[in-house]
Amino acid sequence: MKAAFMYGAGDVRVEDAPAPVIQEPTDAIVRAVRACICGSDLHPYHSLPGSEHGLSMGHELIAVVEEVGADVRTLKPGDFVVVPFAFSDNTCEICRDGFQTACPHGGWYGTPAAAGLQAELARIPQADGSAVVVPGVDPETAPEGLLKSLLALSDVYLTGYHAAFMAGIEPGQTVTVIGDGAVGLSAVLAARRMGAGTIILMGRHAARTDLGREWGATHVVAERGAEGVATVMELTGGLGSHAVLEAVGHMPAYEQAYGVVRPGGIISRVGVPQYEEAPVGFGSLFGKNARLAGGPAPVRAYLEDAIRDVLDGVIDPGRVFDRTIGLSEAAAGYAAMDAREALKVMVDPRR
Amino acid sequence: MKAAFMYGAGDVRVEDAPAPVIQEPTDAIVRAVRACICGSDLHPYHSLPGSEHGLSMGHELIAVVEEVGADVRTLKPGDFVVVPFAFSDNTCEICRDGFQTACPHGGWYGTPAAAGLQAELARIPQADGSAVVVPGVDPETAPEGLLKSLLALSDVYLTGYHAAFMAGIEPGQTVTVIGDGAVGLSAVLAARRMGAGTIILMGRHAARTDLGREWGATHVVAERGAEGVATVMELTGGLGSHAVLEAVGHMPAYEQAYGVVRPGGIISRVGVPQYEEAPVGFGSLFGKNARLAGGPAPVRAYLEDAIRDVLDGVIDPGRVFDRTIGLSEAAAGYAAMDAREALKVMVDPRR
Fold first, then answer.
1. Most exposed: A35, A40, A225, B125, by fewest CB within 10 Å?
2. How far apart are CA B87 and CA B83, in angstroms?
3. DSSP 3-state helix, strand, coil percentages of chain A (rounded to 5)?
4. End-of-domain residue from the set B270, B294, B318
């Protein structure tokens, strides 16, 4: 089967790989319907040291189950499923608390535990605790827009949703979203769903912020840094934002976040931090009792409700996909996202 | 009048100072009944550069009102009051949200805005929004234990309470308190009041941890660093603590905090951070969706309820005071707290 590998910064190749097989009785083997490229895939695309061994890529997938291990109870061959970007048993105390990305029996794709999902076939560990069936949809005949929105639940939309959820947004509150990438726009949509009164989107790419406005942004701030902070403070009457959803992961975004959060407010991060240390002392968070939250989204916790919302037409998160490529074109897909020619690239492995 | 000043690390002097006068119509002048020395006063006691100009010290006080400005409505001469460690208008949007320590019209004692409170007399700015009357108590005849518990509401107990409040402790949860100083012990008491099921107190001073056990600690962990983290992880079945109340402010305490917080759990800090940058990335907070909260306690938000609890005998937070000195003995009081000979020193300016 074909699968995408990264051999170093900027070097993505699609190669033949052995077809996955059931290794544990809790595994399932699935055949990809659609995969995609994540903003977080661009971090290694910028910085991965060159190697003879390619890194198996991808962690977002909608798929059809081909085979299940002896202990799998909720899935059977032929089921159409959404696969969250991390796997989890969904039965332990941490999962029951809603933090499946920290499941002690879970893990990540593109690691020794499980190959990446930009591939024709994939092995899904802890299949019962991870993949969720989409009822009543045949992926062969489903509209492309529906497939896009279901694929968006695998990571991008529910990552934006997680930012809003962890911020505990209350109706009428002011929310600032930092980043107009696909996750930031998803955070706008989620914040609106939670009843935010004012949604300020910090971003400078008009095509993207236009979708942000459609999804609920009441203001767009193109300025960055101190200038951007000053504009948001002005828009919030000098008080700052109740919640700040940080969907970038770089230090300047974090600095903007604590610059615009109001006393007692909360910064909720879902952009994977490209830093380990950051200001949290009296001058940044502590002095104004600002809170910090966020992490890898426990997609599994939100997935059943979100599938229902998509099937009911309540949300249309698939609109972040503005380009579709075949799996063999993966290198061009990464390049297009890196150059910001595409907001988010869907991969059709059958094409 | 006499007041305490710090001229550099380890150099506390009690000197004559001009009696304060009403400067704004919202001011009150009060006469100290009891003041005290704060753990946070020990930070400058260790590090303040020497100067010819003494720093006016102290921010905790119970007092009798002597005079009020023309706009003061809730206080009158003769009222016995608790004075929170920061002043605030208590009417603005930030105060109404419960974050009075970030009030745009508020401020701190021992600054150009207001002298310190280790003094015979003090000017209380924004008096209506800050001081709260203790009903039905005559400080001349009140038992010493009651005075101590009321004084503890000025800062130390409600700072511990704030840690627990911001952690949102739910009944039955596991709470780890880092630090067996007066604030840490207060955090134990507050966590018990909120229904914590297991309370692990990290501290190594037996006289202090004994009071912690009386106040609700179910376990005491004397080890620090990696060893202390390992012990807490063992006590929590490898999962970590739902809430960690950090009552120290030094980096090793912060490191212990993120070491023992469980996935999705929360670190609530009330020890004034002696650092600005700290780990918050994938390896510390983000990876396990751990949250960070805390800051200067908005004592005013909690004060009325806490006064009632003290008067009703529900809590006895004054037990942290294990030494009383006259104001003229302030230098010895600082030295005793610094040497850990005293847990917390009360200052009786009439003695």
1. A225
2. 8
3. 35, 25, 40
4. B294
List CB contacts (< 8 A) between B255 and chain A: none
Q: Do B295 and A290 touch (CB under 8 A)?
A: yes
Percent helix, strand, coil in chain B, to 5, is 35, 25, 40
Distance of alpha carbon A328 from the chain centroid: 23
Domain boundary among A294, A317, A332: A294
Are A258 and A178 contained in the same domain? yes
Cβ separation of B263 and A288 shorter than 8 Å?
A: no
Query: How many angstroms separate the CA atoms of A278 and A270, rounded?
Result: 15
List, for residues A53-77, the tens digit of each pLDDT value: 999 999 999 999 999 999 999 999 9
pLDDT in tens, B11-66: 999 999 999 999 999 999 999 999 999 999 999 999 999 999 999 999 999 999 99
The residue-averaged pLDDT of B271-293 equals: 97
What pLDDT is recorded for position A350? 87
Determine whether the interchain pair B288/A281 forms a contact, defined as Cβ–Cβ distance below 8 Å. Answer: no
Nearest to B258 by CA among B222, B229, B238: B229
Beta carbons of B67 and B159 less than 8 angstroms apart? no
**How many separate domains does chain A show?**
2
Q: Using CB atoms, which residue from B278, B289, B298 is nearest to A280?
A: B278
Selected residue of A276, A284, A299 to mutate for chain B interface (largest B Cβ count, 10 A)? A276
Q: Within an 8 Å CB–CB cutoff, is residue B158 touching chain A?
A: no
Whether residues B166 and B307 share a domain: the answer is no
Do residue A292 and residue B291 have CB atoms under 8 angstroms apart? yes
In DSSP terms, B124 is beta-bridged to B28
The pLDDT value given to residue B351: 82
CATH number at residue A96: 3.90.180.10
Q: Indicate which CATH number applies to the domain containing A209.
A: 3.40.50.720
Q: Which residue of A has its CA nearest to B241?
A: A94
pLDDT tens by residue, A104-135 = 999 999 999 999 999 999 999 999 999 999 99
Residues of chain A with Cβ-Cβ distance to B283 below 8 Å are 276
Q: Do A97 and B276 make contact, defined as CB atoms within 8 angstroms?
A: no
Per CB-CB distance under 8 Å, the chain B contacts of A285 are 292, 295
Residues of chain B with Cβ-Cβ distance to A159 below 8 Å are: none
My answer on whether A6 and A28 are in the same domain is: yes
Is the domain of A142 the same as that of A17? yes
For residues B246 and B257, the answer to whether their CB atoms sit within 8 Å is yes
B191 and B130 assigned to the same domain: no
Q: Are the Cβ atoms of A292 and B283 closer than 8 angstroms?
A: no
B93: nearest CA in chain A? A239
Same-domain pairing of B179 and B272: yes
Same domain? A132 vs A190: no
Question: Do A175 and A151 reside in the same domain of the chain?
Answer: no
pTM score of the predicted model: 0.96
Structural domain including A74 reads 2-155+298-348
Alpha-carbon distances of B97 from A240, A291, B102, rounded to whole Å: 13, 14, 10
**pLDDT single digits (tens) A331-341:** 999 999 999 99
